[in-house]
Fold each of these.
Amino acid sequence: MVRPARIAALSSLVVAAPAAAQERVIDIDIPATTAGEAVRMLGRQGRVSVGIHDASLLRLPVAGVRGRYLPQQVLERLFAGAAVRVRRVAEASFVVERAPVGPGKPRVMRPQRAAAPPAKPPAAVQDDVIVVTATKRDVPLSAYAGGAEILDGERLSLAEGARGTDAIEARASSVTSTHLGPGRNKLFIRGIADSSFVGPTQATVGQYWGNSRITYSAPDPSLRLYDVKRIEVLEGPQGTLYGAGSLGGVLRVVPNGPDLGMMGGQAWGGVQAIQHGAPGGDGGAILNLPIVQDRLALRVLGFGGIDGGYIDDRQRRLHDVNRVTTIGGRAALRYAPGSDWTIDLTTLAQRIHGDDSQYADREGDGLSRAGSVAQPYHNAYWLGEMVVNKRWGKTVWTTSFGYADQQVFEQFEGPRLIDITRLDVQPSVDAQPTVFRQDNHIRLRSAETRLARRGIDGAGWLIGLSLLQNRASVRRDTGEAPVRTLLTGVRNVANEATLYGEYGMTPTARTTLTLGGRVTQSSLTGESQDVPEPVALRIDPEARATRHETRLLPAASLSWRPAEGVVAFVRYQQGFRPGGIAIRQNFVQRFQGDRVETTEIGARVGRRRFDLALTLSYTRWRNVQADLVDGFGYPTTANIGDGRIRSVGWSGKWRPVDGLELDAALYLNDSHITPAYSITPATSVTRVYAITPAYSGVPLAIEVGRIDETRLPNVADRSGRIGIAYSRLLRSGQRLDLNGFARYIGKSTLGIGTILGIPQGNYLDTGLELRVGNERRGISLAATNLLDSRGNRFALGSPFLVRQQNQITPLQPRSFRLGVDAHF
């Protein structure tokens, strides 16, 4: 049985995580209060964990601390004169305990003579203010050669956490997304976008949860961002460190791990009101439980939410049909046997169910459509991970194993076509509508071991070995029960074995040169499903085959620090995706691998009051893979040509006074694609063409509309963001926090070609959130789409109706969320 005093002592836990791998200077504003309340505030402001085992210490009065200090300096000033000592037990984790009493007087911590922190902290500490852990060897941002955005998990509100990846898109200007619905979207970074549709092609963004890859040839699962330590976005190809599928960059979410010293947690709930729509709500709880003090701890999270619908179906006379329900949870177990060994076991699961599709049409007020059938979807995701970590000073060995299982089911209003095997018949608008279903099942296994050593100013080395297997199957059918017609499905299996390494050196005191390389051996196997093989191979005899590829990806970068807090850099990097097998109606076809190479230059300036960053990049993209829609609305995949992308990104933050931060960002993208096809009329039907890739003399697809030289889809020609974050301590002891943003998304198109060149974008999204409370409890009010804009985020609902060019996906109308949260 746990004693009340023990519970009171354990309640002093602050579950927060460090932004750097070692101690760093932090901005602190703590008023005179009790020790228990002070360490809670330190944990939230400085993202450190402080444990106090003796309940009597929680009631000690402590003096206020304000300024820039190391975490240990803050604790020493808080407990100045008390018979206690501060002990660092792990990264950004401390224990405050009574000083041991010997034959003489007890040891007492004395305040340092300096009344203020040093004006210039030691260089080793200064470099650790922000560390890019996604580099796999913890490179300080002040020395990192490349575009990067680091989002502090503590600054993500609970309302934002419920939005999943949409919250990252709103904060990280280089990240864009399609908006078919949560669990169905594709993410893009810095203009590397292949298509609007989800098919067998690998994603262009490498998504990671902790150490494990969470997607390969699947849509973004939109995992909810509760209890997150940090989010890192690395811009541009990351093939050397992350291999296939990181053409545009890497998005890595680092969750908070179990705290070995203290018990505590959090609970929250919120209700949502949507103008023109149905209400919704969300809630959840977190519990951190030490099982063996400083050795073994468990951390669990459970959550659920309902996003109210706001799309009406005029033909079926239904209101608010597009409700989305999400439920999920996470559990993590950490074991620290000693000698700097750590073993982490993590599992998470999430299920998203959409009652109907998210699209409307251009008639009426833009929040309704005329549909014949319901178009539900769901995304069920599960991830298991084990990570073993050992440190020898600045050298770290990490081994991880991951398994991800994702199932995505979609139902569309199907083709109005009698004979779907005929290639020379144009779909009839007057024909009876059908239902088309597609079920994707993806299983991803990964293992990696690496050894890394961190040096000064980005120096150091890294060597690693990784193995990956991705098994993806697609099954499709059309018609209504009990009469359903199976369509051709496909199964793809990709196996990769990789050796990679990186070495950073400092030829001069102000420069860092980094060289790296990756050798990947991959095997690809594809075959048809649910159709006799002679029929399936009718178009491409080589569609069922096992192929082997060997890829070498070099990388090089140089950073120069002309002054403290200033870095200029140049970087060259490559990325690739393997080929595979796709389907077109009842037939199978193959598509080849693609490759990108990017050169970028940029600079960053970091000061106490402001930060600035500018990046210019040029990308060549060869043999672009793209998921398309054929002439009859069926999803298919092909290589569409060669492209190039030019991007300019600028961002800045200004802190004119303590407690106020203003940020702004602007991204410009210019892309161009040159088809690598011979395009000839296939039928007498206007705008239907046979597309023959240059590497094969066999037509692989029928596409509506001639593919002209044009820009890549989905990525706006320009986008920008402005934001504000304000925090103030009220006289009542409560804290007021205000956050707001406005983000403009420029013009783009749905896809490539005459028919798919449907305009989208050109809208303004806004949000504002206010919280009043303290470290223990608070109340918040959040509002999104303050202007109640409609916009058009993604102009597709059913691919079979896309030729009508009447579909839009509007922003969620003006919405309000009232929430409460409590820490214990």
Amino acid sequence: MTRSLRHQAMRGVVALVAVAALLPASAAATSAVPGARGPQPGPQGATTKKAPSAASISSPATVTTAAGTPQGPAGDAALKPYMGWSSYSMQVYSNDGGNWISAAQIIAQSDAMRKKLQPYGYKYINIDAAWNGGIDGYGRPVPSKKLYPNGLQAVIDHIHGNGQKVGLYAIPGISKAVLDANLPVYGKPGCTTGNLAKQPLQQGDYWGFGYRVDMTNPCAQAYIDSIVDQLASWGVDFLKFDSVTPGSGKNDLSLDARDEVKGWSQALARHKIWLELSWALDINYAEYWKQWSNGWRVDWDVECYCPGEALTAWPNISRLFPKVADWWRHGGPGGWNDLDSLNVGNGTMDGLTKDERRTAATLWAVSAAPFYVGNDLTKLDSYGLELLTNPEVIAVNQAGRPAQPVSTKSNRQVWYSLNADNSYTVALFNLGTTEANMTANWADLGLTGAATVRDLWAKKNLGQFATGYTAATVPPHGARLFKVTPQKGSVIRVNDDDLRVGYDGAWQRNGNREVPAVSEPLTVTVTDSGGSTTGQPATTSGVRTVELNNDDPGIVYTGSWSRSTGRGLGDYQDDVHYTEANGDAFSYSFVGNGVDYVTEKDPSQGEVEIYVDGALKATVDTHADSRSAQQVVFSISDLPNGSHTIRGVKKSGQFMLVDKLVVRQESLLNPGTASFDKATPADLTTEIARDPAELAGIANGSTVLAKGTDYTVDGKIVTIRKEYLAAQPAGTTKLEFRFRGDHRDDVHATTANGAAIDFTFRGTGVSWVTALGPDQGEAEISVDGKVVGRVSLFNESRVTARQVFTLPGLKAGQHTLRIVKLSGEVLRNDVIRYTTG
């Protein structure tokens, strides 16, 4: 059975359960809370950014912490990622759909959790699709009598009796049957279900079980309230809201459930019920999901849809890394990035090797993702229990500090997060196919000074290390997890987007106000004419293009890719990368304002999803009736000049190919090419387009040129000395001009006077390093509530990484730094540094 057919079969099973006939006979089912969860479809169409309507952005019914963090409907219950179990993976694995979640099975899972996992913090038992059997006389869902012959209430009471919480499942929309039945809305005289759909009728969910609800009609909110009040009366603590759009394969706003998400959130908030959104939510609306929910799925289902064979597969784990790299900033107290079920509890059913199981557990832990198991809890093996009950790993997850990658430009990645006690959580992920020694450099984490290292999986101290730690022979698809504790007097650098940095007022990340670090070559053709010719510099335009072959080390391939060479079919540099597995992906991070994806078109190929900076831009079709090489199937040229990432994901066809990428960048050198004749030697000059202080250096391969000897800088004119050029061999010499940028190529910025930055730390000194520019003014700085000075951030040109404030000699202990914008068009925040006590 093909994967798509397996998906259809699963949908069919759960849909039949959803429409089981109960009273009234004319309204056999409701799509407000149907028992239906479908598989992972491929998105269709391009993402279109659109502001929410006024009706969808009114004041939320949320709890707020002192720091201003929205808590969603669950309030303080969502200050940490939840831990528990979800039924859906086993529903797929059992190949029995909704029948698997019987009363006996759910009770068995609850009892197994109480015995095996509950002492470690697991407490949610979430019943997914197909729990209901129809509706009551008010159009509200009622539980399946077949699944729960003694009533679902008895099951819920058993779960609560075990000291656990219980979750149920819903999707947006209202069914035609409920509309046609025109039932009264409970507790709201004069309201009936017949006029709750938006007109003209619009599809309400991805699968088309129902119609979009008209949330401008007060009766619609009353209807949702009546459903939620009933769920609350049963003792429901959690609701998964599936098929939410934009997301769920529909990011083009042809389906839009945001107003219903808000309505459900407001109803759930009155009962402090956790709201989890699913699935593959559109990151363009991350702030909206954070406002109204407690968690959101960032990608497709983790299940492989291999009934009886496996719960998941490695490609479904590895594809999450670039997604988490996009989403990590959005997770935190009150709302969490959901990676789906953690299926690592039993090697005979997980579909993963032992190394892959530990890698998955590590990714969930460091991502502060909801830590919920998808296995049959009655059949956990010893290694699965070891992974799921390691208290030090669980502590990483519950600390709620999502990790970020140092870089995603290779398959060997270092991820880290900075904890409130000044320690770092550091994970090493080998996503490649061979074992490797992997190093975490303290400088990459923002740490200067020695640190001790503890292996959290092994529960073993490894010693103290001056500048970094190397883990030997990390296996393919393997991971290591460490706690790194700086020694007294170390300096910690905190980037502007770190979770510990609080923003008061209207702030935006980047928004074209950042300057990325970049390098650009001055290409010099070196000749020796014997005095017969003299080379002349060539001028350049303001834009240059960079072609990257498919084997460029900066292109990261996720999944089972191979390289084919010498095909003789017209490929760029006569080679391609290719894969046959749907879900496999490539990604490339670049600095520029445009990029092309160049590949082959062929009858054996199909659709590819293209994401730029985490947002779905297009689904391109690489199928053609005949083969054609070097085809530009996707191109974008209107990006703000800065740091971006393109990712392509295989969705269909037998093959997906990558031939080359073409990046467009603003040129910083004029000229960018020149010639040097040894027979008539002369200095070469070029003009740089940035402040001369931003030129970090010039390199020829691994050799760094000496300023003052090999080159000089006078204003914006850089002169390469003829003595250096004369020593170069005949041919082409590429001199890389390296320009510094904002730390990690990003800043936070505000235009509002009075907007502020707050940062609490434990240490003995603090500094602020940020950008200067002609559009900036003054800022006021306070430490521990006392104003300690004003700083000017004005400069004639935009420059990066300038220390504008420092205060040493603080008493060891906890302190709070506050920076307030006083004047100027904009204030940028880049780096805060502090010294540990």
Amino acid sequence: MHTNRIHILFALSFTVFINTFSFAQVDGEDKSIEIPKEKEVESITPPTKVNDSIVIPVEELITVKETDSTVTDSIKPKPALLQATVSSSATDYHAFNRKEQKMYLYNEAKVNYTDMEITAGTIVIDYSKNLIYAGRIKDTAGVYTQRPVFKQGDNLIEPDSMIFNFKNKKAIIFNSNTEQEGMKIRSERSKKENDSVYFLKNMRITTAESEEDPEYYFLIDKAKLVPNKKIVASSAQMFIYNVPTPIIVPFAFFPLSKKQTSGVIFPSFGEQNDRGYFIQNGGYYFAISDYVDLAVLGDYYTNGSYGLRFESNYKTRYKYNGRFGFRYENLITSERGFSDYSKNTIYNLRWSHSQDTKSNPNSRFSASVNLGSSNYYQQSQNQINTASFLNNTLASSVSYSKTFQGEPQVNISLTATHSQNTQTEEINLTLPTLQASVGRVYPFAPKTGSKKGIIQNINLQYSVRGENQIQTTDSLFFKSEMFDDAKIGMKHTIPVTTNFKVFNYFSVSANANFEEAWTLNTIDKYYDSENNVTVTEDITGFDAYRTYNFGASIGTTVYGQFNFEKEGEDKKIKAIRHVIRPSVSYNVNPAFDKYYDTYEVTDINGNSISENDFSRFENSLFGVPNKNYSSSIGLALSNNLEAKVRDKDSTKTEPKKIILLNNLNFSTSYNLAGDSLRFSPVKMSGGTQLFDNKMNVNFGATLDPYALDNNNTKIDEFNISNGGSLFRLTSANLTLGYSLNSKGNDKKSNTSDRSRTETLDSGGRDDDLFGRSQDFADQRYEEEEDDKEDEEPSDLYNYSIPWNLRLAYAVNYSNSQRQNEISSHSLMFSGDIELSPKWSIGASSGYDFKNQGFSYTQLRFGRDLMSWRMDFSWIPFSTQSSWNFFIGIKSSILKDLKYEKRLQPDQQL
């Protein structure tokens, strides 16, 4: 052995060098450390003494004998210690202690294993115990920094320290912070059971923006967290700014699913004077599928009144979408046995359906339905209907149209319509209306090239319209009696037209129109001399009449321009352009007196007193044919005024075009066949837009050339001949619409999309001039970023106050019989003012200048409490006088945590 010492020392030195090279400190370098499998059994043969002078090296005395354990041993081999490579890195220190089987990482340490990633200030990997330790480090000031971040899949946890077993993937986490669907969760101690279950102890949960100093949170003793699904917790207590509140629940459940899930809709509580305590808008939400949902809501009052609501939304991308809702309320006033006891049921059905235009370009189905009790919006106790209180009309339309491509093209449509006056409770229905038309046909047009002349431009069409019209009342709606007075008819129309040019500047068109009307409703009249009354009998059976008329018109367009500046000048107003379109038309309507009959009025002795004419088609759907021959000339004149002005933007070289008058129209007619009052009143209408198209102005007037007698009856004498002016102003109207805000843009009001949709589906306006819905508990508070200006607001917030204002002004003048009065004169307004970044107030109201009083008024106050929101709405007067206070959490997950207090309208008023 003495002779082999050189070889032994060389082997030991080589081994030390290899170990030193493999496990020395590495700065800023990534290493992939793999723990090898367990070594197999080695068979070592001791060295043998020989008498040979040849020295045998020690390496040749060691023989490694490999054996296949799967052949000789029935026990299956153990699986590998790690399922994947552990990748690690660090900035300051990255070393492996072979004796302790530990990896030490320091400063910006990072470990990746399968789908798990851990970053921390310091990390220790213990391969002997299959554990990873992660924690913080202190900086030069002695402050802990670089908190561990544990990320696995979509889950992210930020604790103070943690221990992770990479073999069974369990973990112990200390002071962890994580966020699940907007909910920020902090737990003193957490246990990760597997990839989908966490057990938490002393947990704090909030939706506040600040995790370190939240304005509120819930303190929970124990909880079970299933990421992206749910949190099941034991007793929870609410803290507001670390002050405990008496709000304690024995257990809590928080859904965290990213998809739509079914669940309970928490109701609102309150009290009403004549109906007792109530709960409103509580129920259940059914997430039926990704394409349709259903919400079932209900109201209940302790005096027995109740209400039901069914609301559903459906949508199939690139095909169609819609909303359906049905509301029913059974309202009881007072108590049974009292004189003021009453019971009333009201309902409302709404359906909105729209089809994607790309889904089927040749056919289209649409629906907009709003029908029900005429007094539904006036008597409903649900706050969601507040903004629809002033609706005077309910309207519905369901239509299907189909286009058959070809030459000529054929269009067919079926439409069912509904119109309901909520004041008179009259209902008009068409069930259904059939319309069909054939495209224009040019029988004399050339096969190639353009059409020229009067003959080649002759074209004809065919259209048919059939209706089943029903007039009924609210009390007979959906009853068999509503069909008793139904009118059924069909009208066929064939217009023949042509057009051509005269003297290159005048366009001439001529037309002849043929119509045939079919009906199943006719009448007969006779005089009952015994009872001294005229008797009208309804006759059911097919009947028809045919009419025709002729017409022609000639018109041209005249352009005029007045230039204000000469060459070399740069005036603000450069030119004004005036476009005039005069036209003259002539129409002939023959008399169809053959469709008229006469009945004789006699006395009790049978002597004739008078003869009266009537048409058996008086009760038909399309009215009676023309009895009197008319030959009239029509005059029309339209104007358009535009101006070219210097643009305020000096970089633009072209002048800016502004509209002075969109239109200014005059029209009248003269009846050549009339025996008196041949001139029709002159009708004037116009409109324009002002202030960068922010104000819409529309006006109109009626000018009558004839005078009135002492009884205010129109006579066949011109007003100027009777000592008056050329025309007598009989009526006039003016409407203004103006929307403006502090930023000068076209931004709409603060009305949410949900509130606007609710108002539109109820038949209301697209703005909040009639108020907004007061259903604060069900509002979707979307935290959208407003268009903030670049400069930071001052502490006092007094240099700029955001605001918006909407105005609607209308005035009507009547003087047809010398009454010379303003028939209506009102101003409606709605606006919002942001007093501070957190406070906002708004109002919707109007003033009736004729009756000198304010119209329906709603005052609104809002306060942004960061994670919470407070709203107050007040209707100070009218029969709907009430107020509603609400405070609740913005987050959709915790929106059921709320407080509401209402004072509802007094039903006795």
